[in-house]
Design brief:
By secondary structure, the chain is mainly alpha-helical. It is built from 7 helices and 3 strands, in the order H-H-H-H-H-H-E-E-E-H. Strands 1-2-3 form a 3-stranded antiparallel sheet, with no helix packed on it. The chain is elongated and about 60 Å long. The termini are far apart.
């Protein structure tokens, strides 16, 4: 079985993939195909070659979090190959995949900083988007696009959020309080 066609077939078979997941999987596939070649035989992807792939991504300048994420996806793809009995073992099993937290990218947005940003917004919808992210903790854009005015309960000061990222874990809906900082932007 050839690597490129096999990997693309995994995506083609999954009609349930959300657009971001599809895009992320394609990124991993592109890295695998760039390193191993589209026509590489799955059996030629050995644990030693997987180690070389891991190092190649670092040499390419990718960050530790990106490399970790791509290896996890490669492991996932080869798990399918093992289950289909196309390869005897998963060559990515023993590659370390440290936590994908990049502390340098984390930044606490203070209420003061959020208010400065809100003051610069040109439209009510921009202000509402920033307020929902900062004061209600919504994921933007995935949770924003599913909001419905009919699911805002002013009497109980709550609204319903549809969370595509967590729906497979049975947590696709949550109820969020309308905090005093958020209320004026919703109104």
């Amino acid at each position: 079985t050839k690597l490129g066609p096999f990997l693309r077939s995994i995506i083609d078979e999954r009609e349930d993939l959300k657009p971001n997941t599809r895009r992320n999987w394609l990124s991993a596939i592109n890295h695998l195909v760039e390193f191993f070649g589209d026509e590489a035989n799955l059996l030629d992807v050995t644990p030693g070659e997987a180690d070389r792939f891991w190092q190649w991504m670092f040499n390419k300048g990718l960050g530790e979090s990106t490399v970790s994420r791509e290896v996890k996806r490669a492991r996932q793809f080869f798990r399918v190959a093992v289950r289909r009995r196309l390869v005897p073992e998963n060559p990515f099993t023993d590659i370390p995949t440290p936590a994908q937290v990049n502390a340098d990218r984390q930044h606490y947005v203070t209420i003061e900083a959020a208010r400065l940003l809100l003051d610069e917004c040109r439209s009510p919808s921009q202000r509402l988007t920033i307020a929902l992210a900062r004061f209600a903790g919504l994921r933007i854009p995935s949770e924003l696009v599913g909001l419905l005015w009919s699911e805002v309960n002013w009497e109980r000061e709550r609204f319903t959020v549809h969370a595509p990222k967590t729906e497979r874990q049975g947590k696709g809906i949550r109820v969020v309080p309308i905090f005093p900082e958020l209320a004026p932007y919703l109104r």
